[in-house]
Design brief:
mainly alpha, Ferritin, 5 helices, about 85% helix
């Protein structure tokens, strides 16, 4: 296990978590249902807390904070904004959230299974994964509710 590998893994996970928080914020903007908007904003705040936790670990290891997300995430948000313009806003918002949660959950599971992490970093990723898993379950419920 090397600190460099741990930082690299944490940076990737943090970028993905930033993308997810931005995705929740975008979905909240598109949603028309007030309760759904509130839920999505609350989930974005939880995901921002996960970003903060991951960033704290990156800095502890000697890396730099990540705040901007990934280029791929920005491109995906632009594409889905175009396609969502032709769909029911609540349904489109929950579908995008569900897709995003499936993606981020997979990234965190893979990191826990295969990444070269320090014990402290693994603990942080496990805590972040717990929040991600809760978000994935929420997204499943929302998608069923607004389908």
């Amino acid at each position: 296990m090397t600190v460099t590998n741990a930082i690299s893994t944490l940076e990737t996970l943090t970028d993905t978590a930033v993308d997810s928080a931005l995705g929740y914020e975008t979905a909240a903007e598109k949603a028309k249902n007030p309760g759904l908007k509130q839920t999505l904003h609350a989930q974005a705040a939880k995901r921002r807390e996960t970003v903060r936790m991951l960033n704290d670990e990156i800095v502890r290891l000697g890396g730099d904070r990540r705040e901007n997300g990934s280029t791929l995430g920005a491109a995906h948000r632009a594409f889905t904004s175009l396609s969502d313009a032709f769909q029911d806003s609540n349904k489109a918002a929950t579908e995008r959230v569900e897709e995003g949660e499936d993606y981020i959950a997979k990234k965190f599971r893979e990191a826990l299974e295969h990444a070269d992490l320090t014990p402290e970093s693994r603990s942080v990723v496990e805590r972040a994964h717990a929040e991600i898993s809760a978000g994935e379950r929420l997204a499943d419920r929302l998608e069923k509710q607004f389908d």
